[in-house]
Amino acid sequence: MNPKPENQNFFEKVYAVAREIPYGRVTSYGAIARYLGAARSARMVGWAMNACGGREDVPAHRVVNRQGLLTGKHHFSGTNLMQQLLESEGVKVKDNRILDFDKLFWDPSKAL
Predict the structure, then answer these.
(1) Distance CA 72, CA 11 (A)
(2) Residues 6+ away with beta carbon under 8 Å from 36
(3) Structural domains in the chain plus CATH codes
(4) Residue 85, burial from CB neighbour count under 10 angstroms (0-12, 13-18, 19+)
(5) Please, is 65 exposed, middle or buried when counting C-beta atoms within 10 Å of its C-beta (0-12, 13-18, 19+)?
(6) pTM above 0.90?
(7) pLDDT tens digit string along 60-111?
C-alpha cells in the first residue's frame, strides 16, 4: 500500500511517535492520533502502521487497539510475529490481548 501524497507527512509523524514508544511498552492507534492533534484519525494511524511495510526503524508491533488487542497482527509476516516481537520485549499476550495493558500503556501526550 502506497500512501497518498497528502498522507505521507502524517504517516511520517506517526512513525516518529512510534519510534519513541519505549521497549516493553505499548500504545494505541488513538493515543497516537490524539497526540498528533487528529483525535478522530485512529484508523489513519492504523493505515500508517500497515504502510510502513515492516520497516525496522518503526516498532509497529507496539501499537495496538484501545483495548490492548493485537488488531494489526495480520499485517505482519508469519502467523504470530507481532505477538512474538512483543513477548521478546517481556510483554505478555493471551488470546491476542496484552495482559496488564493499563500498566504497560505508554501515552505519548503525557510522555512527549
Answers:
(1) 16
(2) 10, 13, 14, 17
(3) 5-104 (1.10.10.10)
(4) middle
(5) middle
(6) yes
(7) 999 999 999 999 998 888 779 999 999 999 999 999 999 999 999 999 999 9
